[in-house]
Design a protein that fits this description.
By secondary structure, the chain is mainly α. It has helices spanning about 5-20, 25-35, 35-50, 65-85, 90-105, 110-120, and strands at about 55, 60-65. It contains 6 helices and 2 strands; from the N terminus they run H-H-H-E-E-H-H-H. Strand 1 (about 55) and strand 2 form a beta hairpin. Helix 1 (about 5-20) packs across helix 2, helix 2 (about 25-35) crosses helix 3 (about 35-50) and helix 4 crosses helix 5 (about 90-105). The termini are far apart.
Length: about 120
Amino acid sequence: MKINESAENYLEAILMLGKTHPVVRSVDIATELGFKKSSVSVAMKNLRESNHITMTKEGYIYLTESGREIAEMIYERHELLSSWLVKLGVDPRIATEDACRIEHDISKETFAAIKEYIHSHE
């Protein structure tokens, strides 16, 4: 299930937009991430071909089971790491930026250990 960081970011954005938008379209993703619509279209084609999303003829984007699994994993990592860094005294803006970088590279084992540590010390 390993995919590149860019694809993970797109899947996470689709998940998040789906929480606030009735439907998610390429233009919504482009606006959210600050990318050109043409770049988003290429990425959506790649995600479709790897079966992480489906698109309707109207251009509505939906996560498949595998796409949702990846998006939720990245989102969980982002939320936990950024809130933990803030609790450690890191400025919230910096904590969010650092969590974005860490969430893609951290191993499952290390994340599980951090998660267990955080939950046992709350």
